[in-house]
Write a structure and sequence with these properties.
Layout: H1 19-30, H2 35-51, H3 56-75, H4 81-97, H5 102-111, H6 120-133, H7 138-147, H8 155-163, H9 168-180, H10 184-197, H11 202-214, H12 218-231, H13 236-246
Helix pairs in contact: 1-2, 1-3, 2-3, 3-4, 3-5, 4-5, 5-6, 6-7, 7-8, 9-10, 9-11, 10-11, 11-12, 11-13, 12-13
């Protein structure tokens, strides 16, 4: 009787670990639009830049991570000067290395958004340069909408949503804008969409709780913030929201 020989499947190929793969992983982390995502993105991009220190795309992504992280710290009442300084430094280096890349110009626009280096005129120039180089990037349209003043009726917002309907940060920004205009039901829809994209996002939880609170749905708002605080027990923004609603 013939003996059967078992044929073993070949081992899976190793996960790609070069700068392009690391950049893609960092971009996925950035898309989460939360502190954990920015922390992950910075760590991954630092690893990529050890391998390729002159990679302009990685420098641009790092600049964006620091810009967003700095803004999150700012709205939480924390020091953000170093984050904004690092964002500007990385964006400057990215443009030196790859001035032909749209993401490098967008990174500079973000670096000029807030803090002591804020420059509205140059910021607008940089985001327009990014659109000239790549008119199909949803992140750039998102930034252009911000540059133009966050108008919920602006056609640039429609374009950003068409290209990136799952953009968590865009949904959060739009939810806040709608809330400020008293359009609470529409704001709720946008912020719940943001949480569908990233259920752990603390900022989306906070902003949605504010919408519910303004709509006199305080028990729901408090329950939402308490659940979020279980996920993020050290987030000062969530604690501020609870203090406000509980009258502490």
């Amino acid at each position: 009787m013939a003996t059967r020989t078992l044929v073993q499947a070949p081992p899976p190929p190793p996960a790609p670990s070069g700068p392009p793969a690391l950049l893609a992983a960092a971009r996925r982390a950035l898309a989460l639009y939360d502190v954990e995502g920015w922390q992950e993105a910075v760590a991954v991009l630092r690893e990529a830049l050890e391998l390729a220190p002159h990679d302009g795309a990685c420098r641009a992504a790092l600049a964006e991570a620091y810009a967003y992280w700095g803004f999150r710290r700012e709205v939480s009442g924390l020091d953000c000067v170093d984050d904004y300084a690092m964002s500007l430094a990385e964006a400057t280096e990215a443009l030196k290395l790859a001035p032909e890349r749209a993401d490098c110009h967008r990174a500079m626009a973000l670096a000029l958004r807030r803090g002591e280096w804020a420059n509205p005129e140059r910021r607008r120039e940089e985001v327009l340069a990014a659109l000239d180089l790549d008119s199909g990037d949803p992140e750039t349209w998102h930034e252009y909408w911000r540059v133009r003043g966050y108008d919920p009726e602006d056609p640039t917002l429609k374009r950003a949503l068409q290209l990136g309907s799952g953009n968590c940060g865009l949904r959060i920004d739009l939810g806040v804008v709608l809330c400020e205009r008293g359009r609470l039901r529409e704001a709720e829809v946008q912020l719940r969409a943001a949480l569908e994209s990233n259920p752990r996002n603390a900022l989306a939880h906070y902003d949605l709780a504010m919408v519910l609170w303004r709509g006199e749905r305080t028990p729901e708002a408090l329950a939402l913030l308490r659940r979020a605080r279980e996920l993020h027990p050290e987030d000062p923004l969530l604690e501020d929201g609870l203090e406000l609603m509980e009258g502490r």
